[in-house]
Amino acid sequence: MTDTARQTVLKRKTAAGRPHGGDAPRSPARLFGQAVAKSAQDMLNLPIAVIEAVELRASLAELPERMSERALLAVMDGPDEALGLVALSSETLASLIEVQTTGRIGAAEVPARRPTRTDAAMSVRFVDRIMAELEVTLASDAAITWAGGYRYASFLDDPRPLGLMLEDIAYRVLHLTLGFGAGGARRGTIMLAVPAEGRGRMPDAPDRAVSDPGAAAVAAEWGERIEAAVNGAEVRIEAVLDRVSLPLAAVLALRPGAMVPVSKAALSRVKIEGKGHRFVAWGRLGQSRGHLAVRVHLSLQEDGE
């Protein structure tokens, strides 16, 4: 883990404990909205506006009343065997699926339908990313004890089994009304419900006196956990052999086995790109154990080897 990456994470955690200016209170509901918006932008390039962020308490019997009809229900595993719930309304779910499959949001109206396992599979990374973002933001906030440590476990397409799966206790509910897309024409909701009495704990602070051996060990463990979390984050890169322009007729005529001309330098100058075609490095095409492979040259210059 580089010093820059470590400092970035530490700055976010430090900033999480500072008072914010302005009139808007820094409530867990608002921070949950920020986590949702950031996750959608970073993962899907999907703009989301938080129209309303509400925090309340509800009994197990009241939870279904807080959900949208035919919502996708993600059951969440939490600390000390706690179970929570994330509910995505039909509009929210449709927006996630459309952006992942077509790259854009469709009509504002979404037909009501029962969510499927495929819907759940396409939503799990987004749900877990939200919870990870929320934990970073709440790192030095007491709310981390009840909102942190939750990850996707399974899904339900009907709220009726919740009475058998979840504990009959009081729940904290964070409920968001969202606007999707540039104009926010489509409105949807997302809800997080977790046991009101937190079962997690505040993370150990890394800045205790180094003269205390126990504190030093805690600080080292804390740093290792942060490093593992950052290094475990998924980063997608692509190796681009070449880019060519063809007439539409030639594209429509392409069949398996068709030959597409590439530049002579393509084999030795494979371009490694990140999100949004951002240049990362140059590479060279080769083989490894019988498979095509790319040897990466860590060049910081897009116009050099």
How would you describe this structure to a colleague?
The chain is an alpha+beta fold. It is 33% helix and 25% strand. It is built from nine helices and ten strands. The strands form two sheets. Strands 1-5-6-3-2-4 form a six-stranded antiparallel sheet. The protein starts with a helix and ends in an 8-residue tail after the last strand. The relative contact order is 0.15.
Q: Give the overall pLDDT as a whole number.
A: 82
SSE string, helix = H, strand = E? HHEHEEHHHEHEEHEHEEE
What is the topology, as strand order, of the major beta sheet?
Answer: 1-5-6-3-2-4
Number of strands: 10
Shape descriptor: globular
Q: What structural class do you assign from the helix and strand content?
A: alpha+beta
Number of helical regions: 9
Largest sheet: 6 strands, antiparallel
Percent in helix: 25-40%
Instruction: Flag low-confidence runs.
Output: 13-24, 205-211
Structural Rg: 23 Å
Strand percentage, roughly?
15-25%
Give the N-to-C terminal Cα separation. Answer: 25 Å
